Amino acid sequence: MLAKAELAESGPARGTMIIRPYGYSLWERMQADVDRRIKAAGAQNAYFPLFIPHSYLEREAAHVEGFSPELAVVTHGGGKELEEPLVVRPTSETLFGAYMAKWIQSYRDLPVLLNQWANVVRWELRPRLFLRTSEFLWQEGHTAHETQDEAAAYARLIHLDVYTDFVESVLAIPALVGWKTPRERFAGATNTLTCEAMMGDGKALQMATSHELGQNFARAFDIEYLGRDGERHHVWTTSWGSSTRMVGGLIMAHGDDNGLRIPPRLAPIQVVLLPVRDDSDVLEAVDRIAGELDAKGLRSHLDKRSFTFGRRVNDWELKGIPVRVEVGPRDLATGMVTVVRRDAAGGSGGSSLRASTAKEVVPLAGLADRLAALLDDIQDAMYAEALAERDARIHDVASLDEAIEAGRTGFARLPWRVLGEEGELRLASEAITVRCLQQPDGSLPESADQDDLVCIAGRAY
RNA sequence: CGGGGUGUAGCGCAGCUUGGCAGCGCGCUUCGUUCGGGACGAAGAGGCCGCCGGUUCAAAUCCGGCCACCCCGACCA
């Protein structure tokens, strides 16, 4: 179904992945955008060690219990057995906690808002390319606050302004936001916020999460400050992360039978220029166009490779480049070029991209402006298409049995008080999980005690 | 860990039942013709048939053992 050869191949260690340059460029673009948003939310980047003393994890009971089965443990170093085993970080709450304890003395030191871009390792039983690899790249944010409300508000800010907005406006994937049920919560958290997306096959993928950690880690690591009241208090911490899984989500949400489809705002290359043949006037025209697109701030690429036209076309389609501009003598003679949009085929495959709806012959004059508008249009169209497909597969139901039925092909939405934790357990036996709890209008819950919460349930990756 | 499957050229595979020169497609190299949707012709390069042992005049093929990987389930961003 997808252009797997362009993405990755199995690596030297079980369950790891090698990301080829094009796949990595997608990650770099995601990174840059998410990083800018994180900084806008006031956090700063830092870097902490890869190795964590095993005893650090043991300090938070739920945390170590949750992560123990999937730890990679280093027992030897420098040719000798280590006195204390080191774990390769599966996440870094404990390390950040240990150092926050040293750095925080007073309420004046708060909040501490840190983020790091790093690789982490979780020895999964069954890895899956991009979605669950043993080693993955991510960003993890760790913050400490004076009050519970402030911590909760910050987790919410990150969750909505960084993750949800990024997923929707850049990746063009509609997101469902909500809280995890206690059963699905992060090990060591008091509340987990999640951003859930539906893939092309109706299954759910968690795109990012934010956690309220309460004072669990503050107590475990003695992160205390002297408050305005002259008393010592434990801080309230949060953590939040997004990973290379988003690359997988992008592929599975938008990919069709012709390969990837990259939304224009993310695309490393937005427009590929394809000289149909290497006549000198064609090459001249194509060079001039490239300069104009560049001046307009469009990311374009000129493909002068000596492969046949058809091969080059298929190559860029597979990579999901949003717009292709074909420049050949026939059009050029009348001052025109051919513009083809990648998103238009709608996954029907085969020769559908040759269809006239995707293809348009337009004048050379004013091409850059026209393409800029077209890219905006494609961005919106891709979001709208994903939204329509998702909503067509969300069914409002009123009972457990109906939820099981709806969950087989898409998402079921039903009142949480109808399902409850017992119903959640029953769903699990049908391989359906509660993806999130939200308010009836789709917004984040205000409180776990709300009796009007609805839950979204479905199969998940 | 349980169930199923596969190891033969860079990739995808056939050959194994019934032992007898190591094959096919794609890709790669060179030359020519091509180039508006995955070109064509000609000539080439490329192999520890997963590993170890056994049977045999002869093993990719039969027998024994081992190893690796993939898929489904249990764990999860």
Would you give an account of this structure?
The protein is α+β, with helices and mostly antiparallel strands and 461 residues long. 35% of the residues lie in helices and 27% in strands. The chain contains 13 helices and 23 strands. The chain has helices spanning 21-40, 54-58, 61-67, 93-103, 148-170, 216-220, 245-254, 280-295, 309-319, 329-332, 367-392, 400-409, 416-428; strands at 8-10, 17-19, 44-45, 51-53, 72-77, 80-88, 112-121, 135-145, 176-179, 191-198, 204-212, 224-226, 232-234, 236-243, 271-275, 300-302, 323-327, 336-341, 359-363, 394-396, 411-415, 433-438, 454-458. The strands form six sheets. A seven-stranded mixed beta sheet has the order 3-7-8-14-11-10-9, sandwiched between helices. A five-stranded mixed beta sheet has the order 16-15-17-18-19, with helices on both faces. Strand 10 (191-198) and strand 11 (204-212) form a beta hairpin. The longest helix has 26 residues, at 367-392.
